[in-house]
Amino acid sequence: MSEIRSRVVLLGASNLRLALPSLVRTFEAFERSPMQVLVACGHGRSYGMTSRVLGVELPSIGRCGIWDALLHGPPLPTVALLTDVGNDIMYGASAGEIGAWIARDIERLAALGARPLVVRIPLVTIERLSSWQYEIARSILYPTRRIPWKAARDSARELDRRLLEIASDHDLPVVEPALDWYGFDPIHIRRKRRASVWGEIVARLFEDSPARAMSTLSGADRRSLARARPASRRVLGFARARAQPAAQLASGTTISLF
Question: What is the number of other CB atoms lying within 10 angstroms of the CB of residue 63?
């Protein structure tokens, strides 16, 4: 088995978790060798606050174990992806607070030699929502939150502006979501588009290095990823810990969740 020679850092929430098998397969097509994949994601994940969804509590991305893993891990060439920024709006955080959390994490990655690609907020769908569509989406995705439609929309606009400023200040590549990525759900990329959308996004990180033909993950690899659990979480109030990496693929790639 080949030696691990590169690292991928993925920061996000539910879109990232749903697309993880496709993302791992896509990164392997570009990296051409086993990778160390470090991931902080999860449904409703927050960049700055503890999140609780369906009885599962996760630490904020800013306070989870991914940063210690990076600091104490081997020195490897690292690429990073930062996405799913909008959840914190629904938790009542201001655009300024969220922007500060994002800037902090980008600076941490920069200190490790990583230059993340940033995926913007999907304003293309948010701007098209009516108040009643927003209330339906909010009641499904954030049933315990009561952020008014106008306040949420205004915060999304302001946060996207701040995100662009932060990316510009750090000379980072940025991806703007397209309308055809989404269906009725204004936040989650449609299932049938996930592989192609994330393939296009990842390609932006490897513009000078074409991908080889992508292989399909084996059933064993998919099961391994499906069983993977984060290093630290609480389920119905009970602490749960899992040694990392949480999964190792047949290719030698390891995946650690935080």
Answer: 15
What is the pTM (predicted TM-score) of this model? 0.92
pLDDT in tens, 213-238: 666 788 899 899 989 999 999 999 89
In angstroms, what is the C-alpha Rg of the chain?
18
Residue type, 222: R
Kindly list the distances between the CA atom of residue 74 and the CA atoms of 68, 79, 143, 246, in Å, as whole numbers in the listed order: 12, 14, 42, 18
Paired sense of beta strands 56-58 and 78-82, if any: unpaired
C-alpha 20 chain-centroid distance: 9
Q: What pLDDT is stored for residue 215 in this prediction? A: 64
